Amino acid sequence: LIQRIRKMSAERTSGVRAAGLIQLGIGDDTAILRFPPTHEVLVTSDFSLEGVHFRRDWHPPGAVGYRCLARGLSDIAAMGGAPVAAFLSLSLPAKLPQRWVDGFLRGLLALAHQYGVTLAGGDTAQSPGASAAKILADIVVLGSAPRGQAIRRSGAKPGDLIYVTGTLGASALELETMYAQPKKKLDPKKPPAHFFSSRHFYPQPRLAVGRFLRQRGLATAMIDVSDGLSTDLDHLCRESGVGAQIFAGLLPRAEGDTLEHALHGGEDYELLFTASAYRKIGRSIAGVPVTHIGEIRRSSTRVILLGELPSDGRRSRKLLPRGWEHFATARRRP
Amino acid sequence: LIQRIRKMSAERTSGVRAAGLIQLGIGDDTAILRFPPTHEVLVTSDFSLEGVHFRRDWHPPGAVGYRCLARGLSDIAAMGGAPVAAFLSLSLPAKLPQRWVDGFLRGLLALAHQYGVTLAGGDTAQSPGASAAKILADIVVLGSAPRGQAIRRSGAKPGDLIYVTGTLGASALELETMYAQPKKKLDPKKPPAHFFSSRHFYPQPRLAVGRFLRQRGLATAMIDVSDGLSTDLDHLCRESGVGAQIFAGLLPRAEGDTLEHALHGGEDYELLFTASAYRKIGRSIAGVPVTHIGEIRRSSTRVILLGELPSDGRRSRKLLPRGWEHFATARRRP
């Protein structure tokens, strides 16, 4: 498998030096990475488990590989960093067809190539559990940012405005549609026309937006919306020691989508950030729409408040973090 | 779980700054690590799967956690590097008792503390597969070495001598003894007297030896013996484009152990290295015995030769790489 990964990734590593990375150590006990001395190293780690993060009968292997890496890239984007290398650990059932693995790697490497990321190492194993064995991938992405410039979750101040990129809830809406037709298997040879623009199957990590915000020093705090707005805004507020007020009517929803999805739907991989009210934030950054959705408040209880549309006369209410739990309701929360 | 890891590791991070690492980013989308600008970054990734690398009825949770990290530290040792941070991804069955997880973390953190390694992040999930769900850990270890000084596998030259630290086959011998008594469960409250010096349960990563060899510029190539001498020497020879001749009578075996274990037994986590015949290598480095076991040869076929004890008059024979396959014979080889 390692040989195959080497071969498939050798065709796709031309972008590496552009990112300032020199990679050595192929075939050694460890990879060797050289970062610019002025930069710090960002590291993120994400599981993709069959039955939890994807279903083999719904998700084409290319989309599973793509999303596996997209999760890590989105974390790097949320720091305003540049991704440089990925490490893939892959545990596979003995009977899994080779073409599934090839499709998985193709999807992952296509995204890696798009952002100049090297697949620099990893591990492989056979999944335990005999006939119940599942596919399990763990990806670690290393990125970099100039020292002291990575955007943290902890910098939001009362009075800062809250912004989000793109739309919220689109991935959850697509999933709900799939749930409604559980027998229909997606044919990888005949994907629907909208497939490759699908927000669920092929989410776009917002790397250019993150970099722009870091370079201009615009964002005071940032996080990616992977678990749902209610949960991720709660994380940001906790780390910053503040509260927040968001307006339902301002949330950027996909056409026909529900408020519920926009508040709690996960895996949108949009960026949620705060900025001083005195800094101008454009309506679009790097071609991605940016929407003002609320304001950071002083709060001793760190509870997030939801103001409904001011025009409908309803009172505000507490918004509890109940972000979306992937396919299994029982996923352990960190 | 993350909270628990944070709490348990907070008590044990005093050694971090000594390693030249500044760690930020706790609670952020990624960890933020600052390496000395003169150093390059070493990265290694290793699975520890229940039923493949350990058995829940044989291995106490503390030993599973310890070995999980030891595998990564051994890879860093094999480059002559210093370990700085670890990232743990842990997938656990829903019904696993909390005390198993606590024991696992205690074992892992004890070893991390010993070498000043920070547990800097990771991911958690619930293992899929219902009643057949297994424990699965993936650990990524980051280390560092001065630029250009990490010891690769590829530097061995014909005429170099081959050395190995410690003894070979001890882990395999212990396992064989356990296989012979499959019903006997090890009682974590009453471990046998030799337990904590066990080479199988608590292997010592040879970090001090690796660092010494790098600092003195003694080793031309190095690898850790994780898959068995025959397999790992084959890796080293392939990467260096050379062959090798080793002498059965020189292999450092545990008392009463077989040649078979010394040649093919895995998980000893000793260091196998080559050095110029003109450099003096002591019989012990950093308190660990070092043994000369053979010589690097020119070889177009890259086949490893075994010379039996010169005194027994038998002819040399080819040594095929058939390193040890952990608990499952079906483990996918990279």
Task: Provide a concise account of the structure shown.
The first copy, chain A, has seven helices and 14 strands.
Which two chains have the most extensive interface, and how many residues on each? A-B, 76 and 76 residues
Would you list the SSEs of chain A in sequence order as H and E? Answer: HEEEHEHEEEHHEHEHEEEEE
Helix content of chain A: 10-25%
Count of helical stretches of chain A: 7
Spans of at least 5 consecutive residues with low confidence of chain A:
11-21, 325-334
Main sheet characteristics of chain A: 8 strands, mixed
Describe, in plain words, how this protein is organized in 3D.
The structure is a homodimer of 334-residue chains. Chain A is an alpha+beta fold and 334 residues long. Chain A is 25% helix and 27% strand. In chain A, the strands form 3 sheets. In chain A, strands 7, 8, 9, 10, 11, 12, 13 and 14 form an 8-stranded mixed β-sheet that branches. The first copy, chain A, is globular, with a radius of gyration of 20 Å. The two termini of chain A are 31 Å apart. Residues 11-21 and 325-334 of chain A have low confidence and may be disordered. Strand 2 (31-34) of chain A pairs antiparallel with strand 3 of chain B.
List keywords for this structure.
14 strands; 7 helices; 334 residues; disordered C terminus; homodimer; alpha+beta; eight-stranded mixed beta sheet
